[in-house]
Amino acid sequence: MGGIFISYRRDDSRGTAGRLYDDLSDRFGKDSVFRDIDAVGIGADYTVAIHDFIATCDAVVVVIGNQWLEIRDEEGRRRLAEPGDLLAEEIITGLGAGKLVIPVLVEDADMPPASKLPPALAPLARLNALRISDDRWDYDVGRLVARLEQVLPAVSSTVPLGSGARPTPPRPAPASLEPQPARPGGRRWVLGAALAVVLIAFLIIAGVTFLGGDDGDDPVVTVDVTTTVTVGTTTTTQSRVTTTTATPAGGTSITLSRSSGAAGTSITVSGSGFNAGETVEIRFNVAPPASVVTNRSGAFSNVVIKVPAETIKGFPSFVIATGKTSAKSARASFTVT
Hints:
By secondary structure, the chain is of the alpha/beta class. It has six helices and 15 strands. The strands form four sheets. A five-stranded parallel sheet has the order 2-1-3-4-5, sandwiched between helices.
């Protein structure tokens, strides 16, 4: 898919980021430039959507204003250093995925030093930043465009940068307001169609009910518990295996065999609450996904994935499962040690 993701803090540089979005959209097309208010659909899981967007983008443009480093929450804590901060996740995801990350300094901001950044964001300080000022806006944005064109093609445009002019898309022809003649038997056809829809809905519900019984295919979660007892010079190790059945509770969820580990660690993933018989993609952050088909209960189990070797320690990491048909998703956090 490709494209450019614009990362910015709304309380820091919303207006400048919006202006930059407009100019980059003119050059590369609106379908190739993403920012949070446009890219994430209503009701979508923001973190999952952003991970997916950055996974398919070619470049991440990080807009840094005067308040970017020091903006704090209501309790006075620096937001950038808070666990799970969305802006930090955007940047760390881009760095971890090996994308072209370009810091853009606006409103006379300076590049923050690595010593003032969270450890996972420290690599950002080593990147060559581009300063964009109001006085040289067109020239500076032109330099940014030239760099971005090295990784993705520009869309031909006759609109000069910074002009404020927008291409006017063709308007669809208005629908005819002429009254349409009634078709013979129209009302009977509508009534018949409505009855058919009701009947189909009943059959679907009944079918799901019949298929949702005990088919012996429910997911299982296996927990290995090992106990070592030492008495004098004798050591005895006892292993016990506990198997439980995971039943969907109306929501989509996934369970990991472990919640932390080093790069290269294998993780076994089980999940429930998806559609029956649909393909579910399971990925660690933005790594290529593994695929599994759910059973009649909409569940899966024993899918093994690995923590990518290039994952950074302290990286806000997640295992994300997404149903291809239902678009249902669930995630579980994982700490890279």
